[in-house]
Write a structure and sequence with these properties.
Largest sheet: none
Number of helices: 10
Radius of gyration: 19 Å
Helix content: over 70%
Order of helices and strands: HHHHHHHHHH
Structural class: mainly alpha
Distance between the termini: 58 Å
Strand content: under 5%
Shape: globular
């Protein structure tokens, strides 16, 4: 991939979009960790905590980029990303009651960094797959998306609530990235090179399967939620 070519820019847009799609939990963590601080200190906690989380995220993604060169790990990463794409559609959100509010600036910063590191595996795998082992893409993508996550994630979450199809678009992007990772596995490349039609069919089936399974789970959860509300009323 040539630097700043059309393919480079397309991959960069995909990385930023994936980060934003998977950023809801991170935004919640930031807000919960800093909620008890004075407003003047909250900004510092969010800034310092996000900076620390960004450094850890870059290092973790670099490690994953290196690991993906190991035989069969592209396949493993692709399968994990398929599960992440499904969970994006299937999950209805969590309360994150285990995230404690910081009582001081550095306690809040520590909470943000640790929680983000624990929850950021999906982002790391997705970004590493979308970057196609291009380190510059990883760094630029995270530098663009992290400030958006900090300052605009609540707006993005509201946008998703108003336009639910954005979630499906995100699942499609993740599903495509996952299937592309699997077809780029070094041990499988010869097979898919000899059978390009099967490669296209595999990608289509993975994307369609993720969207269909996620839609079924989401619809089932919504029906159960509606039935519970009616039973309470």
């Amino acid at each position: 991939m040539e630097l700043f070519s059309a393919v480079f820019w397309l991959a960069l847009v995909k990385i930023v979009f994936i980060d934003l799609m998977l950023a809801g939990d991170n935004a919640i963590v930031i807000g919960l960790a800093a909620r008890n601080l004075h407003p003047s200190v909250q900004k510092k906690a969010i800034l310092y905590g996000t900076a620390g989380a960004l450094v850890i995220r870059i290092v973790a993604t670099v490690v994953v980029l290196w690991l993906l060169k190991v035989p069969w790990l592209l396949l493993v990463g692709g399968v994990l990303l398929i599960w992440i794409a499904y969970k994006l559609l299937a999950d209805q959100g969590e309360e994150h009651n285990d995230i404690k509010a910081g009582s001081s600036l550095w306690v809040a910063v520590r909470t943000i960094v640790i929680a983000d590191a624990a929850m950021g595996l999906d982002n790391v795998i997705a970004v590493a797959g979308a970057a196609e082992q291009h380190l510059v893409l990883v760094i630029i993508g995270l530098l663009i998306s992290v400030p958006i996550i900090v300052w605009g994630s609540t707006l993005f979450i509201k946008l998703i609530n108003h336009f639910p199809w954005i979630i499906y678009l995100g699942a499609i992007v993740l599903g495509y990235t996952a299937s592309h990772m699997i077809t780029e596995e070094h041990r499988l490349v010869p097979f898919f090179t000899e059978h390009p039609a099967l490669r296209v069919l595999f990608i289509v089936l993975v994307v369609a399967g993720v969207v269909f399974a996620g839609y079924r789970k989401r619809s089932s959860s919504n029906r159960r939620g509606g039935e519970q509300q009616r039973s309470y009323s």
